[in-house]
Amino acid sequence: MKDLRLDALKWDSAEEMFHNIPAPLKNIGKFLDSFPPDKLLCRIEDWENLSDASILKRIRLDKFTSSTLYAITDISYIKDEGLFVVEPENIKNFISIYSKKYRECFFNGDVIFILPRENMIIYFHHCGELLLFSLPKICQ
Questions:
Q1: Within-domain flag for 117
Q2: Which residue, 35, 8, 30, 20, is CA-closest to 101?
Q3: Is 140 within the bounds of a domain?
Q4: Which of 8, 39, 61, 126 has a Cα-to-Cα distance from 133 of 20 to 30 A?
Q5: What is the model's pLDDT at position 35?
Q6: Domain range enclosing 93
Q7: How far apart are CA 132 and CA 134, in angstroms?
């Protein structure tokens, strides 16, 4: 297995990079909760009893992007890590390293994926829903 670092984009840099997202990134979950999604992609029943690998397989992020994505997890807030920078082809290894480093599941509550090239957010909500939100253009 290729040894990967967990790269992160600090909050200030992320706010600058994603300036067209109409909410502070530290509050993006609450902001998204106040709007209906563009699409409910799937509902994963009993997700709390599934492994990260199993959830990842069900949500099929590879279907949405082949370019860099940015993930916001509970650790993004708790440890003030900011947004995790993930290459889609490395996401399985990334999640494995994340789980070992932080000693908790990657899908431990809400996980928000920002896909800048596709101008969308994929939101894994703590109720087990995978939601899609379209964004204004966020990459120059």
A1: yes
A2: 8
A3: no
A4: 8
A5: 86
A6: 8-134
A7: 7
How far CA 116 is from CA of 46, 80, 104, in Å, comes to 30, 22, 27
Residue 139 lies in a domain: no
When divided into structural domains, the chain yields a total of 1
Instruction: Answer whether residue 23 is part of any domain.
Output: yes
More confident residue, 21 or 113: 113
Q: How far apart are CA 35 and CA 49, in angstroms?
A: 28
Terminal-residue alpha carbon distance, the chain? 34
**Could you read off the pLDDT of 49-107 as tens digits, one per residue?**
999 999 999 998 888 888 899 999 999 999 999 999 999 889 999 999 999 999 999 99
- pLDDT band of residue 138 (cuts 50, 70, 90) is very low
What is the Cα–Cα distance from 26 to 46, expressed in whole angstroms? 27
